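Q: What does the assembly look like in three dimensions?
Context provided by user:
Components: two
Sequences:
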Amino acid sequence: GQSLEQPSEVTAVEGAIVQINCTYQTSGFYGLSWYQQHDGGAPTFLSYNALDGLEETGRFSSFLSRSDSYGYLLLQELQMKDSASYFCAANTDKLIFGTGTRLQVFP
Amino acid sequence: DVKVTQSSRYLVKRTGEKVFLECVQDMDHENMFWYRQDPGLGLRLIYFSYDVKMKEKGDIPEGYSVSREKKERFSLILESASTNQTSMYLCASSPTNRGDYEQYFGPGTRLTVT
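A: Here is the predicted structure of the complete assembly.
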């Protein structure tokens, strides 16, 4: 079957760095996306990796290793507003989502 | 800005009722999707559509059907609502379904079936 695994919950303090890992098992894989969802809100796109390596967008970076079927989202200089759920998703002919990681940022 | 709208934010229906959830996007996207989201299970794909009058089953299509008569509108139908269909329903659209694409989500409809 096709699946993505990520930790269910991560906690950190303001100003810290946190890494959310994602391992995947899919076919027809084009790349790995990350989405953020605040409580009560809609998922919103954060990043996409098609090639191996690190993509940086401001405080957020995303990494992909195709050979290891692994990626991660790195959040730096954490802020309280970063408290949300984060989903990795495999881009195939449809998006296959992981079950999400709930990030709680404490002051 | 891409806008995806859903007909209701909250909906309460009775077991056995026929339920229509409507989704409209304003960016001329080819692809539209319906998901349900439940705690601990992430987003699960119910149905998707690549074109008008075209539909494909997702991972959990049982108990649902869809309709896409116009490009901008994608409807999810619960033929006979059951309590296990109580969930958050999210609609999404994207301009393509190959390679680098972003899905744009609507605000969701929280459906309660009593």
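Follow-up: The longest strand of chain A covers residues 18-25.
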